[in-house]
Model the fold of this input.
Amino acid sequence: MKDERDRTILPEWLPPGAAIVAGLALISTSVLLAGAARAPSREKAMWTFARPHYLMYEPRVKEWNASGHTPFDLRLLSLPAMERRMMASFLGDVPCADVLEVERRGVSRTFGGPLESVGFVDLTDTLKKEGLLEEINAPSFSPWTTRGRVFGLPHDVHPVMLGYRADLVEAAGIDVSKIETWEDFARVMKPLMADKNGDGEPDRFLLNMWETNQDHLEVLLLQAGGGFFDEHERPILDNPVNVRVLATIATWLAGPARIAADAPNFTAAGNKLKADGYVVASFFPDWMGDIWKHEIPSLGGKMKLMPLPAWDKGGRRTSVWGGTMLGIPKTAVQKPGDFDKLWEFCKALYISDQFMRDLYREGGIVTPVKKYWSDPIFDEPNAYFSGQPAGRLYINQAPNVPMRNSSPYNTFAMYRVVDALVKLTEEARQAKRYDMATLEARARVFLKEAQAQVESAIQRNVFMDQAGGGS
Amino acid sequence: MSLRMTRVLAWIWTRGVLLLAAVLTLIPFAWLVASSFKSNEEFFRSTLLPVENRRIAWERLTTEPYARLFREMDFSRGLVNSLFLSSVTGIVATLCCAMGGYALAKYKFRGRGLCTALVLAAVLIPPPLIIAPTYQLLYRLDLLDSFAGLILPALAPAFGVFLFRQAIVSGVPNDLLEAARLDGAGEWRTFVMVVLPLVRPMIGTFLMVTFLGMWNNFIAPQVIIQDPARFPLSVAVAELRRGYYNDYGLQMAGTVVSIVPVMILFLVMQKDFVSGLTSGAVKA
Done:
């Protein structure tokens, strides 16, 4: 019997699949060669990671290019792509873009070496000279500041409020103006946790939060005055404020006083739970409203904002979540005049009344430039938040936003504190011990372990001594 | 119970278990395909297919995500880019690795042992470790943002060279090579007409592995390619998932589009792939 292959035109060593792949190679090469004409690249490039930002900047960059300035090419990259390229470029000392719009966690990674090796141009003196250090809300600089030097132009303030299901709260006859502290919140809202369907579990929980969510934990720690590092970038994970916050959160997550449940943000499952009313309130930085509008349009007109309940009477009613900056990589400044051109572009993009309006109208984000805060645009009623003037509510909180630090170990420290909270909550569930004294004692132990881990990691970095960042 | 009855029950049991396993395996895929025909709103309303009054509400499904992929997101470009990168890398890398493996297996030259040791050592280096140096090297060679920057570093992977070396050592007798040379075949002819047919299963397997590797390659294109017009599908699909805004139907449609071509290719090449994997498993 003849081999089937003998009847084919293929050489003996070539499997049919390989012939198909070779055919694909030929066809795709031809298609690519046919459309090989490349769009001419502009003289300078700016990268951003957020589509809403890209859409907002596109017309402004076109205007800039049309007005005779050095033309810019605006590109949208995913956040991980941008961070990988940025780090590869900084570590390899090769150019990437001329202007980078970067998110907070990506920036802190670039601060891991000596000050002179930070890949961004130091903007401190320029900001001082032009009065921008006073003009812009001070806490907005903190994520871009290391060892007293500022490396970015802030994009935002990102105060945090509590967004709650006004339809459910008002139907239950609850008056949120009576809520001043987290204790009040749990007490006043408690009727919403009734078990009406009789399955032995509350029908809904008061707060969207879980022990594994690092963002929520950071929001609460910063609000309480705790955090991961002091102003000299020294780790302070086991400070008494953190101990108290962790112990309190553990009681929210487990035991008879539980009020919180997990409806994860930016996920389909979490959105469904929110739409179903499984959680009553969620942490709402100013950028979150626009996301909910797109992802959960069914809650339009059913939500309202209120200041975060304080940890103590008279305490801080807000916190901060997220942040973006514009930075100029050192590799983009090769000859005299380069910096001035790029700096002009950065200011034209971020420091203008037009940008302030676009930022608020298209993203719900409040500008960090204080002189614009009196603009009537922030008093416009917001339909998603049942007609509340969302912008004004956020601006009222903006000056009180806590300062942050930019330690390259911030993310590492945050996950160590999350570990501590997970251990604490799990241990409480196992032992069924939820009294504050026990929880605080155990939180102290777990946070000391976390502190030791962070100190050990920092001590391995010889460059951090320069920062006074070692322990 | 008769033997026949036992066999029938065993047959039913085996098929039943396999069928159940197949169904469980296919559920996520069915969900993916069903979700790719849904709007964002519908995505949250129904799990698999939308049901109304005990019938499937086909009218609630839409092909709009697919239309948007090709109309707005220029997915056809990503598809062509992926096909180009994967097929060209697959073909050329297979040829290069086969030649490299042949040289290490059958040629005696000074430093052969050192070369083999270097190839083996290169297998041990984790790829993420060389992202920054590769980026710098590609920049110096002016290959950033080019297909060549992706294809060239993938042309002779140490794993492939070593794989072919082993296949040729165990599957190509020296006597056969001697006979070919006595018959007047040159080195290239010996390689193409004698060596390659004997390692044919390995060619199919390695081609498939390289094709899939480049098709699924995400980090390298994400770092090296900067112009969205050159993004392969792996990056284009990831770009559909934005930090905060998600169009789930669009993401699922993008995922379906990205897996269908490789699924077809795998079905065509599965015989070669499996025979390559199992070659050498049983001593002749």
Observations:
- The mean pLDDT of chain A is 90.
- Chain A is about 40% helix and 10% strand.
- Residues 165-320+405-467 of chain A form a domain with the D-Maltodextrin-Binding Protein; domain 2 fold (CATH 3.40.190.10).
